[in-house]
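Lab notebook, bench 4. The sequencing result for the construct came back, and we need a structural model before the next group meeting so we can plan mutations. Quick request posted to the team channel:

Model the 3D structure of this chain.
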Amino acid sequence: MSQSEEIRTIRGVKDVLPKDQAKWRYAIKEFETLADIFGFYKINIPAIEYLDLFDRSIGTETDIVSKELFVVNQKSGTTDKLMALRPEFTAGIVRAYNQNGLKQLPQPLRLYTYGPVFRYDRPQKGRYREHNQLDMEILGTNSAADDAWVIYLGWTLLKRLGIENVVVQINSLGSKTNQQEYIKKLHKYFAPHKKELSETDQRRLELNPMRILDSKDEGIKKLIEDAPQSIDHLDKESKEFFFNLLSYLDDYKVTYNLNPQIVRGLDYYTHTAFEFTCENSSGQQDSIGGGGRYDGLSELIGGGKTGGVGMGIGLERVIQLLKNKPPAEFDSKGQTEIFIIHLSKRGRKKAQDILEQLHEANFATLHAPDRPSLRAQLKKADRLKAKYSVIIGETEAKGNNCILRDMKSGIQEDIQYSDLLSTLTDRLRNGRSARHVRNA
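Done. Here's the predicted structure in token form:
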């Protein structure tokens, strides 16, 4: 690349510009509020882990590990283990749970987080090589009630965000023993059709035929639809677990669809597998997120036996689907509420005192320390969409008052310096107008 050539973003990543931030804040705030309400605790984990964590948990032959993992280049001659950027949150959270003794806390332990994950995927609408997920996990549980609780939280979040026609596509993969028997049935079913399968699906046939059910090859759609279903190969205990889960979802009035093709692309899933979908403009179901139960994951990465269930929701996908405009409190973030104008050297110190006072009270406040003309400063306040300007002329600088200007109406009033904070709090935080204040 020549020095004169403009440097742009890497393919498959994107900038989130200021005009889009209100929706991001809105979605994240709703998620955090619901997580608190549902009894989840915040956890942050590193974006980089040892590669072995994902090899063991997700599976070396899954598409995520074999095709989509960002492996970090090591310095020449290093003997350190290979590292990779996280492609999902679950494995890292279970690692943190084991490493930090979180099993000693009251169980089950509900954890949530959000942030970027990385997959070297084919970029397409709503999917990026660096994308963001909202993640929820419940660890130390063997109860179907907790599977339902995770699904109910995700369902409630999408409803509160105004995303329409959401359906939970749900399936049971059964226990690992059930899966072994089911895999044999699928291999027997797909083997005579091997020549019809793509190279990728032929490899899946030999390694884990369940993954063929998740194939995007339209040419074998009918073949997949007629394949044996996992729910028909569940033992008594697994069936009881699944029916209990569906009963809880009925109680929560969650709309779901039994879908035998939901297997998820990770090796660690047992029993529950689900996705949140909504109908797109073509009448097809687009995935917003999903998850499932992973009772053997902790043991795969060297921890003790610990049941768990979790899910991830794609934040970029949610932002695309937002129908409700974020409330005004989110739209106004980053905008100036108050602009301070001073017209003399004497007024500069007073302006600085007011600025500090308003910042301590969490008002979005700016000023022009270089002191251009009154007209120029008012124009600047107007461009910033400030609601009020505080004007300090020579008279105000000498006294204990200031001028408060309503930038929308242009009305100005003389305010005692000691009353400025309470007046602005009444008008900008409590919704009281100047008329209400005067008549109080």
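Residues 435-440 have pLDDT under 50 and may be disordered.
Will bring this to the meeting.
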